[in-house]
Design brief:
The protein contains five helices and 25 strands. With 357 residues, it is mostly beta strands.
Length: 357
């Protein structure tokens, strides 16, 4: 039997529980879509509470309630990162907590701790224990907007630095464990000989930008130019064998004085703008729930993976999972853009804020 439990977001006290008629889970880290649970009676939960979808003692999905329709008997929820859906003052601009160059993992921990674990507003406080795994010392933040949308910032760190949030419930200590992870896992392979698999590939596999030109905003002279390579690193060699073509250029303001004061390099700034664009594609891969060759639920966001299909290799990263209660398939998503395969329309889901350019 499948059932659900809803827990108060601040106390983790059980607020509601019931039987599930049907569910649809969409944990696509890029698209941030809504998942749903069809229930049998009106729910006593509220927007913002935690919801757990279970089959026996096994957890199917953990999320944050975004809406409860007691007329239609439907609960809507999203990925647990939506616990942090709020705006905060730009800590990079107004405080000394972080500089423009920071460690993406520990930096996010500092922000989440200030905003949600020890906030001034007691109603924003969450029973969160923050943990970290790995580091990325080269993160750069140059946005001068007065506030930060936390979900957009969390998505930005995944898009550019492969840093994501993992959640679990600790009922013994009445805590939500949130682990901030820098994923460097590589070497996984998916082949088209897996039983009952059906990959669909986006036709447009080119990075949206693969050249970063740093320029002086006052006089328009070029400081340095960097080129994106097929292995998601940068080079200054325009004739490098792994350079991506055709050129798609992004122009970035360069302030040498600011860079020295904040401690970042030209290459780090360039990577913050075009790094990760080698994954500017979408691959949908359907796998039967009953197959045993691939442990679908063991994939982690940002896992580097090679997909072999019709004799060609595609280098990508794992970025999402969708499945339904009575559907015999999982649908896995790889890459950082999303495509409507019915009309092949490209959706450029850039995880970047408005900047001075």
């Amino acid at each position: 039997m499948v059932f659900y439990k809803i827990y108060d977001r601040q106390t983790l006290a059980l607020a509601d529980a019931g039987i599930v008629k049907d569910y649809s889970v969409d944990f696509d880290y890029i698209a941030n879509n809504t998942s749903t649970i069809d229930i049998t009676r009106p729910s006593k939960g509220f927007d913002g509470d935690m919801v757990a979808l279970l089959q026996g003692a096994s957890l199917i999905a953990l999320g944050v309630v975004t809406a409860i329709d007691n007329g239609e008997l439907k609960i809507s929820f999203r990925h647990p990162k939506y616990l942090f859906r709020d705006r905060i003052l730009n800590v990079f601009l107004f405080t000394s907590l972080l500089g423009k160059r920071f460690d993406a993992v520990s930096g996010l921990r500092v922000i989440l701790d200030q905003a949600f674990v020890h906030p001034a507003d007691p109603r924003r406080r969450l029973p969160i224990e923050l943990r970290t795994f790995g580091q990325d010392l080269g993160a750069i933040w140059v946005d001068d907007a007065p506030s930060i949308d936390m979900i957009e910032f969390i998505d930005y760190l995944f898009d550019h630095y492969n840093v994501y949030l993992d959640f679990e419930m600790d009922f013994f200590n009445d805590r939500i464990i949130c682990t901030i992870i820098k994923n460097t896992t590589s070497g996984k392979v998916l082949k088209d000989n897996i039983k009952l698999s059906n990959p669909e590939l986006d036709n447009n596999e080119l990075p949206r930008e693969n050249v970063a030109v740093l320029f002086n905003k006052d006089i328009g002279t070029t400081h340095r130019t960097f080129f994106l390579l097929q292995n998601n690193t940068l080079t200054t060699n325009a004739n490098h064998a792994q350079r991506i073509f055709p050129p798609a250029t992004r122009y970035i303001e360069w302030d040498a004085v600011d860079a020295i004061r904040e401690g970042y390099t030209a290459e780090e700034l360039a990577f913050s703008e075009i790094g990760g664009n080698v994954y500017n594609h979408c691959i949908q891969y359907k796998l039967a729930k009953k197959q045993t060759m691939v442990a679908v639920r063991h994939f982690n966001y940002g896992d580097a993976i090679t997909i072999i299909y019709k004799g060609r290799s595609y280098e990508s990263i794992y970025s999402g999972l969708r499945f339904k209660m009575n559907d015999p398939f999982y649908t896995l998503f790889f890459g950082k853009t999303r495509v409507d395969f019915s009309d092949r329309m490209k959706i450029h889901n850039q995880r970047r804020f408005a900047r001075k350019n």
